[in-house]
Design a protein that fits this description.
Length: 359
């Protein structure tokens, strides 16, 4: 099977591991910032294959995990407005707010529908013109172009009942903030899906300003091991740079059409990340010409600042400071069936990945 079997070939895996063990002489800490990578690294047991000189850290790569309680609280408040339908991706349903979840609100009578695409919201808005349709948009550069298309379609259809609550974010500002934080990072395993949209140029500042290597990597065992080898070679030679391992999907220029859509619809804003706090110029908000679709501007959503769940260390896990197993609730009070924190809710969260593949 193309792009599966050859990237799981045992001979290639053994060859790459041999090169990694021969090359890695100095302790190095590499962080992945992609939920897909977090899962794949644990699923394939990559850390157990590497020499003790290499430590892998999981960063804030899961969009559900970095989305704060305040965003969920706002979505819940919108769901209580009469004649309202919330349309949302399924993985947002169980993320805890201050006192409830969208799943609980639906059980209590709120009209909340799971959708596979934000464009489904447009069809629902056309079908129910007397109702207000709210789409809580989350995700990084991978999912935000689809939201941009949806907003443009709402404008084209001249809809007055569709609104976006945006928690869309971009990766580089958070990656740069982590370098200045208390966790030591020597190189980044850069996200594959994000980079198909952005291209490789967004990581140039990390190399130029911080001297850290960046390798964009795929999701199969050979991808990950080759990416790690590339980073180790950079680190050992003292020659950090941006490289693309995932060449079958990522081009240096990215997806030009998708980037134009993002530039047309969104502009940057300061945004809050779980574990990192406020990260300047890391969020996406609608431009002024699309303000009629902005839920934040058109509805009163000022709410008290929520408190994080006592005992939950999701924020420290997202910064690479602690492992899920360091949490006293992990695997006991907090499980995928009964998640306490956002890192256990999402299938791409560090806690759920650890639970599935290492408990």
């Amino acid at each position: 099977m193309k792009h599966i079997d050859e990237y799981r070939d045992k001979k290639l895996v053994d060859l790459l591991l041999k090169q990694i063990w021969e090359t890695s002489k100095t302790p190095v800490r590499l962080m992945e910032v992609c939920g897909g990578h977090t899962v794949a690294i644990r699923k394939f047991g990559i850390p157990e294959l590497l020499p003790s000189t290499i430590k892998l850290l999981s960063g804030p790569g899961c969009p559900v995990c970095v989305t704060g309680k305040s965003f969920i609280d706002k979505a819940i408040k919108l769901s209580k407005i009469p004649e309202t339908i919330i349309t949302t991706y399924g993985d947002l349903m169980r993320v805890p707010g201050s006192s409830s979840t969208l799943e609980n609100e639906r059980a209590n009578g709120a009209e909340i529908r799971m959708v596979y695409s934000p464009l489904d919201s447009i069809e629902i808005a056309k079908e129910y013109p007397s109702k207000k349709i709210f789409f809580p948009g989350i995700g990084f550069e991978t999912t935000s172009p689809a939201t941009a298309v949806t907003v443009l379609q709402a404008k084209k259809e001249k809809l007055d009942n569709f609104f976006l609550l945006s928690a869309h974010k971009i990766m580089p500002p958070a990656m740069e903030m982590l370098i200045d934080d208390e966790v030591q990072i020597d190189g980044y395993i850069c996200p594959g899906h994000v980079s198909t949209i952005t291209g490789s140029g967004i990581y140039n500042g990390i190399v130029e300003n911080f001297g850290l290597g960046c390798v964009i990597t795929g999701f199969e065992p050979v991808d990950l091991l080759q990416g790690i080898l590339m980073l180790v070679k950079q680190f050992e030679s003292g020659n950090p740079k941006v490289e693309i391992q995932y060449k079958r999907a990522v081009k240096a220029v990215g997806n030009i059409k998708a980037l134009k859509l993002l530039d047309e619809v969104f502009e940057l804003k300061d945004d809050w990340w779980r574990g990192l706090g406020n990260v300047p110029k890391s969020g996406l908000k609608l431009k002024t010409e699309f303000k009629k679709f902005d839920a934040e501007l058109n509805f009163q959503l000022n709410l008290p600042e929520p408190k994080e769940e006592k005992g939950c260390i999701c924020g420290e896990i997202l910064k690479g400071l602690k492992l899920p197993s360091d949490c006293k609730m992990f695997g006991k009070i907090c499980t995928p069936e009964n998640p306490v924190g956002a890192c256990m809710v999402s299938t791409e969260g560090s806690c759920q990945a650890f639970y599935k593949y290492q408990l």
